[in-house]
């Protein structure tokens, strides 16, 4: 059987279950064939296989197929490397392997064709992040935006679909998730989330501590406690009122208290007394008697004294 027939028969056997193994065998067969014409034909069959694997949601095998095509056709390496990068990012993130995706992002930035790969990778991550944000899925959305931030190397020249910076999205989603994790008591998960995002927020490390009393710590042998003053209980204060409580009856007419029996009647009486004794309030009532006294004194002084 000719090598091309073996190659095509092997492609036909590929399915969802054996896709990775078939691609590995295809790679070994392609390495032994150096004829440019047959390699071009192999690439066309591999392109069809990669398209089919993407439709079957076998993104990892599809990315390996694109990498194989890029190795067979050096003149079009950039094109197939771009397809491999975007599909591999989708595969890692879809399976929740964000740590591996972070490592792969670092590899893309170090690649010789980094500008092109970064551009396509950013477009993919931003589109997926926005889709999860619209679905109200904050956790994967946070990782997509964080990876986009790392792939771009910051905020420069990149915004999300609603015009926000990547760092702003990461900070807001991070705060939302941290509050939820801390309320649920999932401190280890909160610390792990903080570690993956603190380079964006510029925060220091986060740690969890158990708060215990001195007595419990001493009882467990972790400390030695000495009581300097004995414990004492705070006695509840005794509240005394100057006036008796209002006598409320059953009828609605009895619910309205009279001013004289109101708890604030004493205060109002004091206010009235202070107001009536002020100079401004008493000027109109006290001035005439003072003038009458002065007039009487003057008249008394001008009256001659009889002998």
Give a structural overview.
With 307 residues, this protein is mainly α. It has helices at 3-12, 19-30, 36-55, 59-72, 77-94, 98-110, 114-134, 138-152, 166-183, 187-201, 214-219, 265-276, 279-302. Helix content is 64%, strand content 0%. The longest helix is centred in the last third of the chain and has 24 residues, at 279-302. The radius of gyration is 43 Å and the shape is elongated.
Briefly say what this structure is:
The chain has helices at 3-12, 19-30, 36-55, 59-72, 77-94, 98-110, 114-134, 138-152, 166-183, 187-201, 214-219, 265-276, 279-302. 64% of the residues lie in helices and 0% in strands. The radius of gyration is 43 Å and the shape is elongated.
Name some characteristics of this structure.
single chain, 307 residues, mainly alpha, elongated, disordered C terminus
């Amino acid at each position: 059987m000719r090598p091309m027939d073996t190659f095509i028969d092997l492609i036909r056997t590929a399915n969802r279950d054996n896709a990775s193994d078939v691609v590995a065998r295809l790679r070994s067969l392609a390495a032994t064939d150096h004829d440019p014409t047959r390699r071009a034909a192999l690439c066309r069959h591999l392109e069809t296989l990669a398209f089919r694997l993407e439709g079957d949601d076998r993104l990892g095998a599809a990315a390996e197929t694109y990498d194989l095509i890029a190795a067979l056709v050096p003149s079009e390496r950039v094109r197939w490397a771009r397809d491999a990068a975007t599909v591999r990012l989708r595969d890692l993130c879809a399976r929740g392997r964000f740590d591996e995706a972070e490592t792969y992002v670092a590899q893309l930035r170090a690649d010789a064709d980094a500008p092109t790969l970064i551009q396509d990778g950013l477009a993919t991550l931003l589109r997926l992040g926005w889709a999860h944000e619209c679905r109200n899925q904050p956790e994967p959305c946070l990782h997509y935006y964080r990876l986009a931030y790392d792939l771009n190397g910051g905020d420069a020249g990149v915004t999300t679909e609603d015009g926000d910076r990547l760092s702003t999205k990461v900070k807001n989603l991070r705060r939302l998730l941290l509050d939820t994790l801390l309320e649920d008591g999932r401190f280890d998960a909160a610390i792990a989330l903080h570690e993956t995002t603190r380079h964006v927020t510029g925060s220091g490390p986060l740690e969890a501590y158990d708060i215990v009393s001195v007595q419990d710590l001493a009882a467990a042998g972790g400390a030695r406690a000495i009581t300097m003053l004995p414990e004492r209980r705070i006695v509840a204060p005794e509240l005394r009122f100057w006036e008796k409580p209002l006598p409320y009856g059953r009828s609605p007419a009895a619910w309205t208290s009279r001013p004289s029996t109101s708890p604030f009647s004493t205060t109002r009486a004091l206010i009235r007394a202070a107001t009536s004794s002020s100079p401004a309030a008493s000027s109109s009532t006290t001035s005439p008697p003072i003038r009458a006294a002065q007039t009487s004194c003057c008249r008394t002084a001008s009256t001659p004294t009889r002998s």
